[in-house]
Amino acid sequence: MSKKNITTFTGTQKGLTVIGDYCYAYTGNHPANTTSVEGLNFTTGKYIIVGKFQLNQAIGNADSSSGASSYAQIELNGNIVSHMHSGGSSRDPLEIQYLVIPPNTEVIVRLYSDEDQATRYITGVLTGRVYNG
Question: Which residue of 43, 80, 90, 112 is 20 to 30 Å from 6, comparing CA positions?
Fold first, then answer.
């Protein structure tokens, strides 16, 4: 039986983790705020990523029964390629954006809300498959 490399999850960060043919990045908890924050900021290597970004509604750690609207702006090399909105009274609690990310691309995901709710937190995750060109 061959031995497999296992990477231990060390926490959230703005960077991308690549393990074999897969990749992931977690934004961590960001308080719902009208001022945007960088949830992710990294540059890919010499590979293509076919993946998705999931934006989760801002909810409280102590009370997940209500939440604030969450927004994400995805930029590739300084170009906005997606605006996302989840939560609020008429929206799903999460939204998914499928992405193809070219090689050597700077990826920035900005998170914000339409209200300041310091007890509610926006989260997001990027997952994908890595293809070496």
Answer: 43
Q: Report d(CA 51, CA 82) in Å as an integer.
A: 14
Choices 2.60.120.40, 3.40.50.300, 3.30.1340.10, 3.40.50.360: CATH for 22-132? 2.60.120.40
48 neighbors 103 (Cβ within 8 angstroms): yes
Number of H helices, E strands in the chain: 0, 11
Whole-structure pTM value: 0.88
Render pLDDT for 39-90 as a digit per residue (tens, 0 to 9).
Answer: 999 999 999 999 999 999 998 877 666 778 999 999 999 999 999 999 876 6
Cα distances (angstroms) measured from residue 93 to each of 54, 90, 102: 10, 9, 29
